[in-house]
Amino acid sequence: MAIDTRVILICSGKGGVGKTTLTANLGISLARQGFTTAVLDADFGLRNLDLLLGLENRIVYTAQEVLEEECRLDQALVKHKQESNLSLLPAGNPRMLDWLKPDDMKRIVDMLKEQFNYVLIDCPAGVEDGFKNAMAATQEAIVVTNPEVSAVRDADRVIGLLNTNSIKPVQLVLNRVRPKMMANQEMLSIDDVTDILALPLLGLVLEDEQVIVSTNRGEPLTLNSVNSPAAKCYLNIAKRLQGEDIPLIDPAEEISGFGAKFRRLMQTKIF
Amino acid sequence: MNSKNQKIIINIEGRNYPNWKIDLKNKLKTLKSNNLEIDAKNIDLSCKEISEIIEIANQFDCKIICFCSSSPKTIVSSQSLGYKSQFIIESSSKNTSDEHKKNLTFSKTHFHQGTVRSGEYLESPGDLLILGDVNPGAKVSAEGNIFIWGRLLGIAHAGSKGNSKAKISALQLSPVQLRIAKKVARGPKEKPQLGLAEQARIDSEEIIISPLETT
Fold first, then answer.
1. Which residue range is the domain that position B50 belongs to?
2. Measured between CA atoms, how close is A156 to chain B, in angstroms?
3. What's the CATH code of the domain at B16?
4. Whether B10 and B66 share a structural domain
5. Residue to test with chain A: of B112, B118, B131, most A Cβ within 10 A
6. Is B120 on the interface with A (CB under 8 A)?
7. pLDDT tens, position by position, for chain B (215 residues)?
8. Do B109 and B206 belong together in one domain?
9. Within an 8 Å CB–CB cutoff, is residue A159 touching chain B?
10. Of the candidates A22, A56, A59, the residue with the CA atom closest to the CA atom of residue A171
11. Which residues lie below 8 Å from residue B156, measured CB to CB, with a gap of 6+?
């Protein structure tokens, strides 16, 4: 039985910035480091964490059935094919959007806490009920954002809400960083983002086309493609989450290795 | 030696600079204690002036424990230099002759420490003093003046009940929109010079931004 379970909410406000991708990759990375990890898809209206993990066809029960006591928790948990430390708990049925209340979320997470070292909650976009439900059961949070004005604005709003609900610590992941565009000042710089959001930066994730490939395949990048720049970033974030002191990558340095990266991209096999 | 804190009142009304320094030095000479509590009354002191006071105190081997003042600006300045500061609300029988005080009688100053984030809304029935940034998407409003010890990147509305003498001051003034009383203005397009505090007020029916006066 795990004692100190960390329940981490992964949220962003804006959609499409990479919450689900981060959840899946972080889940795999933590599981690889030997931690029993549960990923909970709280985006039950438009769930797709199961797709990213390639587990769609294995889902039989959801958290909804667990709460209604139609099945046991371990029946609903879907173990990952390769990474046995990782389990997915799908939140519910997309056709029944109103069933989940903040208290239900707390009950599910309390059940998961008994078995896992880490519980990662993949939060839906927006700041409405879905977000409030997901927030109810969590202690700490990771806010994902892109170096874009709209994503930063929404992240700021979410951070304000997290603060007022005394969720601590809240850390920042800056996703889809394009070093070249940053160098040319065509994109918000890392300082621009951290200046406004005033949060400790947990990590940067470089823009990587292989993310799309891996999403379509249902195999998170961290599972096998060690060469991918984004996969390295995800692994580093997982290590930093446990307090390991790993320096952040410098986007300026990544440009010099661009030729190498391009060659690697050419070698990537798609299907 | 007396180990108790000694409270000294600095009197620099009239802004006679060479004199107030001498005055302060004379006061320090006669002190029995090394721990000072500085009462700046209702005088607005900038960071620079407070640093000067600290420097003079250091020359006399005195340690400043805390600053008291009824001026929000002095409080913000001393806090930013890392000193304990105490905000004192003046009694109504004070003998201030400041003309803006006559025009603006505020019930109280509302303090807020920390960033005001997107979607948040802060309102005050008197003055509003914010130690932190006002981010884009956030809105702050006060019936009196607004002082921001940080960046104003969102919307600020001073004199929200129609006081056209109200002012908005910030260390970096690059708002989306400024409102004073019933006037509305869009923020400046160019970024302001770094390290230059600015102030917005109404001048001949227009909202204008000028460098913050250090008086």
1. 6-90
2. 5
3. 3.30.750.24
4. yes
5. B118
6. yes
7. 334 566 666 655 555 556 677 777 777 777 777 777 887 777 777 777 777 788 888 888 888 877 877 777 777 777 667 677 777 765 544 444 444 444 444 457 888 998 999 988 998 888 999 999 999 999 999 999 999 999 999 999 999 999 999 999 999 999 999 999 999 999 888 888 877 899 999 998 999 999 887 55
8. yes
9. yes
10. A22
11. B134, B139, B140, B141, B146, B148, B168, B170, B175, B178, B179
